[in-house]
Sequence to fold (217 residues):
Amino acid sequence: MIQATDLSKRYGTAARPIAALDRVSFRVAPGEFAAVVGRSGSGKTTLLSLLAGLTRPSQGAVQLFGQDLATLNETALAKLRGNTIGFIFQFPSLLPTLTVLANASLPLRFAERPEPERPGALLEQVGLGERIHFFPHQLSAGESRRVAVARALVNRPGLILADEPTGDLDPETELTILNVLLEAHQQGATLLLATHNPALAGRADRLIRLESGRLKL
Ligand code: ADP
Ligand code: MG
Fold:
C-alpha cells in the first residue's frame, strides 16, 4: 500500500539546512492502521504530505498502490489523490462561501464513481445533520473539523492520511471522529494517523515513531 524508501525532506538553505525528515523507510500493508507519533516538529506533517504527493522529497521515494510518485506529474497526482486518498489536514480549511454540505461534497466532483447521497450521510454520522446548510463562519472549531473529516471520506478512499485529526478537541468530538475513521478502516481502508494522543495511538495496529525527522525503532 505505502512504501517509503530513504525518504528525506530538507528545508532552509544549503548553508543552514533543516532536516524535517531524514532517511525514513517503512511500509504500511493494505488494511493496516498505523499511528505516526512524535513530538511537535518531529516531521509528522512533512511525512504525510510527502506520502500524499503534496510535497516532493529532497531524496528517496514513495510508492503508493505500487506506483512511484516521482513518475507522476501534477495532473496524475491530483487524480490519484482524488480517487484514492482521503487527507485530513492538521489545520483544515473549508471554503467560506460554500455551505457545510457543499464543502463536504466537493471531492465528488473529481470522483470516478460519485455517490451523491454520501456527504449527507457522513455529516449525519459526525453529528452535523442539523448543520448542513450552515456556512463555515457559523461553526465551532470542532464542527469545522468534523466537516473536514466527512469531506476526506466522501470518495471512500482506500488510504486515509489523518494529521492530528482530533488535536485541540473535546473528548466527545474526539471520539466521534475516531469512530468514523475506525469505521472506514473496518470497511477496508488503510489508515495512517498522526497524533500526540497516546489513547488514540493505542488503538493502532502499529506505531511509526519519529524523533527529529528520524524513525525511532
Ligand atoms: P510535526 O508535524 O511533527 O509537528 P512538521 O513536519 O510540521 O512536524 O515539521 C518538521 C520540521 O520541519 C520542523 O522543524 C518545521 O519547522 C520544519 N518545516 C516544516 N515545514 C516547513 C516549511 N515549509 N519550511 C521550512 N521548514 C519547515
Ligand atoms: Mg504536524
